[in-house]
Amino acid sequence: MANEPKTSTKDNPLVRALSRWENEGGRTDADREKRAALAKEEEALILQCLGAAVISRWNNLPTEVQRDLFARAVSVGEPLPTADLKEQLARFLHSHKDL
Prior knowledge:
99 residues; elongated
């Protein structure tokens, strides 16, 4: 391997083709930002659907599972202080318990 000539990435036809494509407008930062925004929207929709499914079955879940899910929800809901979030979650679950 030490005897092999080193080739620059400029000599690589795939690198040159990709460079041409990018220079012709093949990829822009706006495209990347748009894809990131769509991924965030998709993630939010998935979490919303999963959350709604869990809430719809909440009363049928074993108490241990309810407590674990509640604790996990509090731990991922960072910007709010834990006590405030616990209160909001408890209120929400109580008001939706018979759905």
